[in-house]
Model the fold of this input.
Amino acid sequence: MASLRQVTAHHAHDQRLTDLVGQLTVHSDEFTTLWKHHPVRTCTSGEKHLNHPTAGPFTNTSATLPPPQESIRA
Done:
């Protein structure tokens, strides 16, 4: 959710993104609650548990590495 907020902030004039957030807000009380209270931040890693109809359940793990110049300054 925090990453979606960040992307939305960076692409404030993207109508499709605005529409997506609007639809999620209208159709999901859970989304609306999370959207109101979740902080904005960059998501650098994550794990998603999915259940594909053909392949079955699997876990997708991701990580985003900073560009080299950011690593040096940190």
In short: The mean pLDDT is 84. The helical segments are 2-10, 15-27, 29-37, 68-73.
